[in-house]
Amino acid sequence: MCKKFLSIFNVLHRTHVTYLKSEQKKVLYELYKKEIPKISEHKEYSDIIKLQKHSQILYSLNEELDIYKQLLKEITYSKDSYEERLKKNEDINHLNCHIENVSNLIIDDIILFYKSYVNQDHHLDATEIKMEITAGVGGFEAKMFSKELFHMYENFCKVRNYDYEMKEMINDEAKENKNIVLYIRGNNIYEDFYQENGIHRVQRVPINSNKVQTSTSVVFICDEKKQKDNIMKKINFSKHDLIVQTKRSGGAGGQSVNKNETCVKILHKPTNIFVQVQKTSSQIHNKNLAMQLLKDKLYNFYYELEKNNFLKDKKNQKQSVDRSHKIRTYNFLHDVIIDHITNTQYSGIQNFFKGHMLIQLINKKKQLFYQNIIDQTLQYIFALMDCQKGPLDTLSQNK
């Protein structure tokens, strides 16, 4: 049944960062069997039809594969085991190759649909991210740990051939790093680092102590270009958001002091942020300076607001929700690292800091990242079709 489709996908073997789970395939098979009414106001319609057709091809290929497997099971004269016959059979290998290619094509369809309709504010096409590593609880030990995390990500970038640049390293009186800012560039960079967002915890005995101390550092990742665009929309305020007042400038005295109202004060009502400028003798010039100063203050306000609230936006990550939103624990006492998102454990902290093991972990986390995108998109499609039950229950139970 599927042979007429094979020439379409007779291409080089393709790989993908993730795969279709069996539950997701079942949902796709349900999708292809649905008669989708053409609703003119839904621009998503043509893309759903495309996904439906590819799902039908995948279903047909899997049906044919099942037939071949059943035939191999019925062979009794071969000395090879069933598993060996599966590996040696060229038709089955050929079908498996096509199934993987079609599956990857469907994943591409779903990701494109996600970016176009489900979440247009996505960061999947970002080629640069900003990383901030900030010392948290633990004083001097936390600052030392922040520096170690910086070197870990530096090694990761070297192994992955990512360009990186340290823009800022803010020191305090203890002469250790309080805040480190990195810019990292590469294709699809955001998906590599997104799930590093959060609290990294270290447990070890400090040099000047005999007791185990727990310290933390916070890693904050953002797509600064898109973030700037979003913030600029927020600070593109109307005149109704402002209260502008003028008054006479203060001075040391003289013939013309306090005669003209050149001092300008502007209040932004939504945030209650205000600025006051009296730098020049021109009210117009002072007002322009005040407006620019207000925009700068609002930008910093919204940036810090997003930074402080980013932990609340972790509902799509496959991790247990706890008070601290821990990403990883680095236990030097037992020389192990526990990743709380994937529930995996790694031995050898210093080796982990070299970057290669972090690549393995991030690749695993990227699978979870894209699995969530696939689930969200399929749920969106069925919700759009007013099919709230059935296959959606399967997805929600496996989250």
UniProtKB/TrEMBL annotation:
Transmembrane segments: none
Swiss-Prot/TrEMBL keywords: Hydrolase
Source organism of the structure: Plasmodium reichenowi
Keyword Hydrolase: yes
GO molecular function: peptidyl-tRNA hydrolase activity; translation release factor activity
Lineage: superkingdom: Eukaryota
Lineage of producing organism: Eukaryota, Sar, Alveolata, Apicomplexa, Aconoidasida
EC number(s) on file: 3.1.1.29
Protein name from the UniProt record: Peptide release factor, putative
SUPFAM superfamilies: Release factor
Domain Peptide chain release factor: 80-196
GO cellular component, one term: cytoplasm
Family indicated by similarity: Belongs to the prokaryotic/mitochondrial release factor family.
